[in-house]
Amino acid sequence: MSASPLVFSDQDLQDCNTLGLPARAAVAVLDDESSIPALCAALAASAGTAAAAPLFVLGGGSNLVMAARPRHRILRVALRGIRLWDETPGHWVVEAAAGESWHGFVDHCLTQGWPGLENLALIPGTVGAAPVQNIGAYGLELDQRLHSVVAWDLRAGRVRELHPRECGFAYRDSMFKRDGAGRWLIVRVRFMLPKDWTPRLDYPDLRDHPGLGGGRGASGLAGPGHRTAAGPTPRQIFDAVCDIRRRKLPDPAVLGNAGSFFKNPVVDAGQAAVLQQRFPDLRGYPQADGRVKLAAGWLIEQAGWKGRRLGPVGMHRTQALVLVNHGGAQAADVQALARAVRADVQERFGVDLEQEPVLLD
Ligand code: EPU
Fold it and tell me: In whole angstroms, how large is the CA radius of gyration of the chain?
């Protein structure tokens, strides 16, 4: 059976980015892996010519600031399917296609009795985008559960199976992100889900959640906190994470946003100590390498931006790290606010914030 060729056509993309920015571009939808070799051939044939508009691989558009008329051609990944790919004495290895909804996939795994991803519930976006920014929340990062990523190297025109060591993972970062959104086309992602599951309750908000029997004496910065004997079930953790996120974070379907707009900055121990002295309430998490990850939301709030607007955009009223579109914003409005927030945090704390969402121009 021959694959249907990918056809690019001019399309509206406002509903394809969670900030809800108006945009139009040439878009093709990838719903069949067998179309990829022809895509690679077409890319190789047009490389270096004037006709070679760069390609941008789009998942759920939840980590994106889209310009109104990006010069990129957009490949929307709509590959579907979830299966138990392998089973070892210690693990279920579950494979999901890149176009699956991340949250739907986490939910499905729990329903099947494959726990381990529940701390990452309700993160917007697709399975294929998850390794790109190495999604993480509530004490778990994706790379801790990853088996492998099946991805096409569009430049080389071949498919690779990449194991975590080859993906260059770091906090909110990976080789896929560093290499740019036109090099790698992730088609499937495999996860190692442990049969001897234990709850991950390191994160204070989660440990203290009433739905998990928390709130009794747990406090302070992150530290070991697994509750094992008769502890909560994976589904209870999933529900608690959903509850925390729903209370703190705006729903992109209601108020456009791209989640955390900046990374939490990691500073060296000396700088953290100086800041701690000047600002005793500073929120920070010691890292394994001795550095300290500061809570960007706290820095932004202290700089006076929590709930404050600049034109049609603003920083959210319950989580200052989230930039929201109050309606009618363009990419330039978003970037103007981002610059203003960065400048104020730099002036007050001497700390540089790094934008997390990718600018698609
Ligand atoms: N804080 C403030 N003011 C604010 C926001 C936060 O003082 O306006 C303080 C909180 O009180 C807390 C600390 O900052 O002491 C950390 O806040 P929170 O628990 O909300 O987490 P975060 O560090 O702001 C990170 C991720 C989130 C993830 C949560 C939970 C990044 C960039 N963001 O946020 O990810 O859900 O931890 O693990 O690492 C996302 O990427 O879209 C996202 C929501």
Answer: 21
Q: Are 121 and 106 in contact (CB under 8 A)?
A: yes
Query: Which residues in the chain show pLDDT less than 70?
Result: 1-3, 50-51, 214-230
Residue 180 has a pLDDT of 83
What is the pLDDT, as a whole number, of residue 229?
A: 54
**For position 223, what pLDDT does the model report?**
32
Alpha helices in 203-281 (DSSP H): 204-207, 234-248, 269-278
- What's the sign of the alpha-carbon dihedral 238, 240, 246, 249? negative
**Which position among 76, 145, 172, 188 bears the catalytic label?**
172
Atom of ligand 1 nearest to the CA of 248: 20
Q: Residues 6 or more apart from 33 whose CB is under 8 A from it?
A: 79, 187
Residue indicated by tokens 């089973």: 87
Q: Contact, 185 vs 158, CB < 8 A?
A: no
pTM for the full model?
0.93
- Nearest ligand 1 atom to the CA of 135 is 41
Query: What pairs with residue 286 in β-bridges?
Result: 292
**What pLDDT is recorded for position 182?**
87
Q: In the chain, what is the greatest distance between 2 CA atoms, to the nearest angstrom?
A: 68
193 Cα distance to chain centroid = 20
Going from the Cα of 109 to the center of ligand 1, the distance in angstroms, rounded, reads 26
Residue of 95, 100, 301, 356 with catalytic role: 356
Q: CA 67 from chain center: how many Å?
A: 20
Q: What is the pLDDT of residue 221?
A: 32
Which residues lie closer than 8 Å to 18 by C-beta, 6 or more apart?
60, 61, 62, 64, 124, 252, 256, 257, 258, 259
> Can you tell me which residue has the tokens 């209370």?
247
Domains and CATH numbers, the chain: 9-77 (3.30.43.10), 82-247 (3.30.465.10), 256-360 (3.90.78.10)
Q: Would you state the torsion angle of the CA atoms of residues 173, 122, 320, 262, taken in this order, to the nearest 10 degrees? A: 10
Structure confidence at residue 116 (pLDDT): 98
Predicted local confidence at residue 216, as pLDDT: 45
